[in-house]
Amino acid sequence: MRDFNGKIFTFYSFKGGVGRTMSLANVAFLASMAGKRVLMMDWDLEAPGLEYYFRGVTERTVDGILKDAPGILNLLDEWDSGISSLETEDELEEFTSRHASADNFGRFVRSVIDERVFPELLPSGGCLDIISAGSKFIGEAGKPYEEVLSNFSWHNFFNNNLGGYLLDSLREWARKDYDIILIDSRTGLADVAGICTLAMPDVVVLCFVLNQQNIDGIGQVASAITSQTHERVKVRVVPMRVDRRDSAEGSDAQARAISVLSRVGGIPSHLVQEDLLTLHIAAEDNLPFYETLAPFFAVDLTLDPLTLSYVRLAKELIGPEVGIPEISLDTLKVIKNRIVPKNATIQYVIDLQSAEPLRAHSEINRLLNVAAETAGDGQIEVEYLAALCDTVLHVASISDGEASDLSMLNKTMDILRYLSSKDSHVWHGPYIDFIRSALEIVWIFDNEEEELKIRSELARLLENDESAGVKLLQVDNLQEIARIYRSRSNFSLLHPLIERIGGLIKDLATRRDFSEVHARALLIAVSKYSLFRGEVYLSVDQFNGAKQVFLEGLANIENIPGRNPGDEIDRLKFRLLVSLAKLPSLSIDESSKYCVQAAYVQTHEFQYSAADLFSIILRPAVNGTYVLEFARAVFSDVSKRRKLISYFTRREELLFPLVDLISRALRSLRKSESTDASIAHILSTLFELVSAINRSRTRLSPEIIDGITARVDKIITDTGLTDEKSRRLVGMLENIRILSKVRR
Questions:
Q1: Is the separation of the CB atoms in 201 and 183 below 8 Å?
Q2: Angle between helices 516-539 and 543-557 (to 10 degrees)
Q3: Which residues pair with residue 39 across a beta bridge?
Q4: Burial per residue of 274-294, b for 16 or more beta-carbon CB atoms within 10 angstroms, e otherwise
Q5: What number of other Cβ atoms are within 10 A of residue 477's Cβ?
Q6: How much is the pLDDT for 574?
Q7: DSSP assignment, residue 700?
Q8: Separation CA 744–CA 742 (nearest Å)
């Protein structure tokens, strides 16, 4: 039996993101390398993840399950639910002796070092163990971790179920079996933080960055510890990510920390000053995006500032025997090969969503290539690939329609297609979900051929499912395929597809297994079907029949509940209005009216039909009132006009109609002597258009630039614009002309 001499350290931070968990992990590793028996406990129950820092040295068969191993919450739940069901003193005595025992606590311990591969990382007598936060599902009922945590009553645990006895027993067991026990605490002032800082430790290591919020928060916690434990618990203060210590700003921050921690926290000022000087952790700009330990990514352990900071901290907390670890180059090579992300961690993948675009693309493509390899070996996890899929979709959705983003989508679908072919039970659903999500953003790429390919794939996947929801999804997808056929005037494929869609809708109308959501989806499908029936009429020049069907579709839309701006219903309404506006049988006023109505609908599809609408509204015989109202609808919406300008500068032949619309609208305003906000919106559009042309001048032909600048000059002259923005506009035009001549 070991002596009762283990020491418990709690690492605490008032705010997250300061580097607390990384510091604990490094101190734990350095202590074990010095021959200490070390136990880590992950008490950060709301945001666990301590085990991630040891992926490079954990046994591969354990690595994937450590984060799901039974741990603290399992222990608490077993005790809480078990003790509340006891009826007699004998049962209570038997229960407490069994559950508050070394054997029971030992069930939750896992080693984080793969001693077969890394024997040199476990010096004689040393060990590095962990009790994780808890498993995904807890208790005999298998309740989700999050549900158990949210429903756990700390008040009931302590006041009714002898929770203090369990924690005292856990504390005594840990101190008997280990030299060093390191607790990763919850942030803030929650109950768990109180347990970790008051009930369990011998020493609390307060981790913080030198800003006002962190300093004030740490001061409150230090005050609670010093006043309630009466010096039983020692407090050490560790400033994190310290940079520019000798600057005026750094000096002021340290002075503020000394003042708050001594005045509010009750720590003698000379001790605070000593800790600030000796325990600070240096800032490091080149931290990897993945969780690991400082010695594993340092170029030279003897010179690496971060490794030396952790060694200094560990030496001060643990003892002088802690030093710079001696790790062979071969071992470091193996560790680095393991920890440099291949399939990476889920958090690493998610973080790529906010990374610099070039780096995000490079890393995502690398991870997709690795995922393709590991998929073939059957070694890819559903949760990991789901995170990678989400990141691909996010990065693609904020792109400018680059081919590289489309390539990422296709790579991801290739992986999912392969996995689905190998195990459809697991991967069929995620594959369909990804395709549906991809179709929500594929319009960015303005590539009908690609969209048709994806939709054809989806149609194949949905073919044999007879459930009402999937049949409705199939109808919607086939109707979008019909839209592409229509835009290509491919009536030989459109007509039989319309008949097939009609048959599916007729069958769905007789179903009895419909929910309200299904019924709404069917109404949308019927309205969309009107759009394609009208196209069939148009293909044989039956214009009145087409008009009637289009109007029926609009009428059906008004009966659909739960509408939101920019949603699928608005997109459908827009398409019907555009189809009506383009009917050759309508009067000029009637087609102009539908143009204006279409322009007021919120949908990203406007830019793709803008050329058709412009050609209708800019006919010489169109009343200026319609032109002005159309311009108001287009230019008053900042998002719509900017997307339009971005799209038109990539389709230079469309720039002239846009300038003509601005010109006609301004003339109409001048005739009407209107002073409303429309003129400001229209002039802003003109300014943004010229700015976009200036940015795109290397892509635009000199003829286009000459033509556009000449027309804008004429607008300024004809309308007599003299404000500051107009003067800047003239200067910008001159600059464009000069640079265009230089190009030639």
A1: yes
A2: 170
A3: 129, 181
A4: ebbeebbbbbbeeeeebbbbb
A5: 21
A6: 93
A7: S
A8: 5
Place of tokens 């618990």: 233
- Spell out the alpha helix ranges (H) of 445-515: 448-462, 468-487, 491-509
Q: Please give the structure tokens belonging to residue 298.
A: 């340092």
In the chain, which residues have pLDDT < 50?
Answer: 1-2, 61-64
- Residues for the chain: how many in total? 744
Q: What is the pLDDT of residue 61?
A: 46
Spell out the long-range contacts of 577-583 with Cβ–Cβ below 8 A and sequence spacing 24 or more.
Answer: 577/601, 578/609, 578/612, 578/613, 579/531, 579/534, 579/535, 579/546, 579/550, 580/547, 580/550, 580/551, 580/554, 581/612, 581/613, 581/616, 582/612, 582/616, 583/538, 583/543, 583/546, 583/547, 583/550
- The dihedral built from the CA positions of residue 404, 407, 411 and 417, taken in this order, carries a sign that is positive
Question: 284: closest CA among 311, 306, 308, 312?
Answer: 306
User: Which residue shows structure tokens 């009343």?
Assistant: 623
Does residue 595 contact residue 630 with C-beta atoms inside 8 Å?
yes
- Please state, in angstroms and rounded to a whole number, the distance separating the CA atoms of residues 256 and 729: 51
Please give the structure tokens belonging to residue 374.
């590991």
Q: Which residues does 704 contact at the CB level (< 8 Å), separation at least 6?
A: 652, 655
CA distance 731 to 736: 9
Query: Domain limits of the chain?
Result: 7-336, 343-447, 465-586, 611-744
Q: Taking every pair of C-alpha atoms in the chain, what is the biggest distance, in angstroms?
A: 101
Residue ranges of alpha helices (H) inside 180-237 are 191-194, 212-229
Backbone angles phi, psi at 41, to 5 degrees: -125, 125
pLDDT given for residue 302 in this prediction: 86
Among candidate residues 418, 409, 322, the one with its CA nearest the CA of residue 364: 409
Which of the 8 DSSP states describes residue 654?
A: G
pLDDT digits (tens, 9 = 90+) for 290-329: 678 888 888 888 888 899 999 999 999 999 999 999 888 8
Distances (CA, A) of 554 to 90, 520, 535, 576: 76, 15, 15, 7
Residue 569's H or E segment, with its range, is helix 568-581
CA dist., res. 375 & res. 369, Å (int): 10
Report the chain's C-alpha Rg in angstroms: 34
Q: Closest Cα to residue 43, out of 4, 78, 8?
A: 8
Distance between CA atoms of residues 527 and 549, nearest Å:
9
> Structure tokens of 154?
């700390």
- Which CATH code is given to the segment(s) 465-586? 1.10.3450
C-alpha distances in Å from residue 725, one per residue of 463, 687, 721, 728, 730 = 57, 8, 9, 5, 9
Q: What integer pLDDT is reported at residue 67 of this predicted model?
A: 63
The token pair that represents 487 in the structure block: 């835009």
Alpha helices in 144-206 (DSSP H): 145-151, 154-159, 163-177, 191-194
Pairing of strands 37-42, 127-131: parallel
Location of structure tokens 């489309």: 406
**What pLDDT shows up at residue 64?**
45
- Residue 358 is encoded by which pair of tokens? 């070039």
The pTM assigned to this predicted structure is 0.51
Q: What is the pLDDT of residue 726?
A: 64
CATH architecture of 7-336: 3-Layer(aba) Sandwich (3.40)
**Full strand arrangement of the beta sheet holding 203-208:** 110-111, 127-131, 37-42, 180-184, 7-13, 203-208, 234-239
SS3 content of the chain, % helix, strand, coil (to 5): 65, 5, 30
E strands within 70-178? 110-111, 127-131, 137-138, 143-144
pLDDT of res. 376: 63
The pLDDT of residue 42 is: 95
Residues 6 or more apart whose CB falls under 8 angstroms from that of 247 comprise none
The domains spanning 7-336 and 465-586 adopt the same CATH topology: no
Using the Cα atoms of residue 260, residue 262, residue 266 and residue 271 in order, give the sign of their dihedral.
positive
Contact 607, 652 (CB under 8 A): no
Report CA torsion sign: 78, 84, 85, 86. positive
- Taking the C-alpha atoms of residue 417 and residue 437, their distance in angstroms, rounded to an integer, is 15
